[in-house]
Amino acid sequence: MKYLLAVLLTCIAIGGCAPIKPYRTEVRGAEDPCVVSVPPWPSETPENSVPSNCLDDNESSGSDAFFFVRYPEPPQQADNIPIGIIEFDDLGVLQKRDDKDKIMDRIRQLTDTDGTLTVVFAHGWKNNASPGNKNLANFQRLLTEIAKTDAKTCPAGSRCAGRQVVGVYLAWRGLSAKVEPFESMSFWNRKRRAERIGQDGATEVLADLAKIRSASKGKDKSRLILIGHSFGGALIFSATQQLLMQDAAAQHLPKWEKDTAKMQRQGDTQSCTKKKLEKAQEVSGKPDCSVDTVDGPPLTNDSGCIWTCKHQSVDRTIANLVILVNPAFEAARFTPLHDKAEKMHFPQTQSAILAIFTSETDLATKTAFKLGRYTSTLFTKYNSEFPKESELDRTAVGHYDDYLTHKLAPGNGKDFATAEDSVCAWQSFRLPVKNEKNEIKWDLGAMVLERTPSAENQPMNPYYNVKVDKAIIPDHSDIWKAGFFQEFIPRFIAAQDRQWTTVKGKPKPVIPCPTD
Hints:
The protein has 14 helices and 19 strands.
């Protein structure tokens, strides 16, 4: 305690501590909006993201907590994308609750009008909401890429056509000290703070956004995407972990259903009687249609009546999709969800719920994280009946090999597949369908996503833990390199929500695919 106090006093004495105050001090009215001009990728000049009409662009005076992003010559949906910045102090308390409420009201209005694709981003260590922060500038560019991809995969006639992309930046004191060695020494303190914020203030914000998505007039076309990097990944996971587990546990038991379409194709117009159902159950050996029953070919009895055991997709209480990049939390925290999913069966309609992407050369979570956990758990008593418990508690989730489900590597192509082709490629990957080389991959040309051997027996598992090649994400912080957030993530988000329209009373995909 004395040592920590001495460090704190020294830090204060030399003026190296970052202040605990909001950087964003105002939410302007609709009649005087703040507009940010965002340079195209791969610009590394975040200073261009805060023009003079957004209040003062320095840390001492503050700037807008709600503004619009304008991209050079964008399609309509990528023009004037609203972004709200919500800040927390070290205890997870909202810095300005009134501003948060105003931002929620704006998002609610947009959702009621056109529907929204809301993307939340929580930054990591050594970052904040200051006007010149690179994470904030790159998040603005990411939103424009998501909007352009969404416009291509949501054409006129689709359920999501014309919806508004919205950004929410969750800011906290990731940068607590501005001089060394105090800046680097803040690693573990900032980890605890990120998890505290996730459990408290961030949970409130995400619950508000989830309610807006589910209760608004535009709920049928609205989606909520959560993204976190580093300790921001720990923040997002802390805020969603219990709900993710609750949704998995609440999966409805499968039911026996007659496959009417297939019966009609075979010319069988008979009704499926209870006796015929009992025959199908007998053939399957699973009379109760339990969770151990896997989706497979329909069962046919002597009368030609076809039954199949239908499994239900897992609900999404908090968000449509959670994406974590180089997250800094223990694999042990992911264990309950991993173990639950191992015993579940998912239908072919199941899409991803949680996707963790970790660079194979992220030394911060691979080496430093493990070393720090060894030091901090020296006197922790582990369960002798669970020999892997200590390793799980000391290894970051993205580096625990037994939990890896996919790998993301450079592809053979120079360019990325179009947004439309990416959706169809995902359909083949999801079903799964082998390509001409007898492989099952999501091939985007410039990048390829492939399941690990241990995950091949459960292709519909919606909880992804992906090892990323160093050529795509070189290290812990260099996540904005052209390709991953610029091309891959927008396509990954779009692929999880294939759009359909109705033609003559029947559903029809707005992007037809060979697998249809």
